[in-house]
Amino acid sequence: CSLDANYSWTHEELKRKLQQLLISRMPTIAPPPRRSSGHPSIIALVGPTGVGKTTTIAKLVTKYRLQQGREVALITADTYRIAAVEQLQQYADLFDSKLMIASTAAQMQEVMPCVQNEDIVLIDTAGRSAVDSNRIQETADILAVAQPSETHLVLAATTSNASTMKAISAFSPTKYNRIIVTKLDEAATYGGITSSLCNVGNNLSWFTDGQDVSTHIEIARDSRLIENVLSDF
Questions:
Q1: How far apart are CA 85 and CA 77, in angstroms?
Q2: Which of 146, 177, 219, 225 is the most exposed place for a label (fewest CB within 10 A)?
Q3: Out of 3-12, 68-77, 148-157, which region has the weakest mean confidence (pLDDT)?
Q4: Are 199 and 166 a contacting pair, CB within 8 Å?
Q5: Are 47 and 78 in contact (CB under 8 A)?
């Protein structure tokens, strides 16, 4: 984001102009799925390795199943990390939810008819390097079968602006339409992620800021990022 400053502005005027500019450039906030009848809300998470997709899935399971009482099914396309499957299995067992594996488009085709009676279907995908276009396309092909109503690109607030912008571009084949920002508690400043979000047209959905699956997730608020950026101004 850039601002053509007027040298006659006071400190407070400049700060207010910056705040207005950031607000105007930030993505809008997408609300969580409403309760519906007849078909599930299918929610997929994609993104680079290490941004916290599986942990975020666990937080969403907790929110939808435990806090809202919805019927939730889990599908994992991440068979590269055994720990990811085990982690999701623990939550599936805890909340009496299904966990199914679909690491290929053909497997996803077999799995989808089994979850049509659920309220929420959460799909975890394998982390992909932003420079590995073939692997990203594999993920896109799997999701094309699932036809999620929401596909969230997960970005970590701790990642550099350059790497974040690369991920925003590289994951476009997955047709993501929302963005989750994780690890806000680990970021020294929110300047990098705020700058990146100013240049993306997709909606924000969730923020996460810790490891506690029941409390460390909230509906995204652009004001939280902007207040942090301007706090030392």
A1: 9
A2: 219
A3: 3-12
A4: no
A5: no
